[in-house]
Design goal:
With 148 residues, the protein is of the alpha+beta class. 24% of the residues lie in helices and 35% in strands. It is elongated.
Length: 148
């Protein structure tokens, strides 16, 4: 599926993304290794057992990155110029190994660029686990192509 052009986004529209992903221990370990994040809460089972979570939790930046990836087919696949920003990120609940995540995007605003050749689209992204608990939310701003 290709992404949407600027004119295809409607303010107020909620997109329930089809793809889901079960997060594995390997996903979390590799992301922490690649980003050199050695936080024991993500990597050390004994350390994490003594925290309020009782077990290791998934790196929050991995959760956000995965969420963006899951939104791409229905939003920006092949129609994006650039991601302009990510704002207001929050993690209201932890993600654990074995959680299956799904994502919804709500289009919050859009405007044409000053040259009228592209458009800026803002969306609020929410990530839920298999129990529909909100585990991550953020605003994403993209520069989108206009359909010619």
């Amino acid at each position: 599926m290709t992404g949407r052009y600027y004119g295809e986004f409607e303010v107020g529209e909620v997109i329930s993304h089809e793809r889901r992903r079960t997060v594995s221990e390997v996903d979390n370990q590799r992301f922490c290794d690649m980003t050199m994040n050695q936080q024991p809460l993500h990597l050390d089972a004994e350390f994490a057992a003594d925290t309020q979570f009782g077990e290791r939790i998934v790196n929050g930046l991995y959760t956000m990155s995965l969420a963006v990836a899951l939104t791409i087919p229905e939003t920006t696949d092949g129609t994006i110029v650039a991601n302009l920003g990510y704002d207001n990120m929050e993690h209201p609940a932890p993600v654990f190994h074995g959680d299956t995540l799904h994502v919804e995007s709500t289009i919050t605003s859009k405007r044409e660029t000053s040259d009228g050749e592209r458009g800026v689209v803002e969306m609020h992204v929410e990530v839920f686990n298999q129990d529909d608990t909100l585990v991550c939310a953020f605003d994403r701003t993209v520069l989108s192509l206009k359909d010619e």
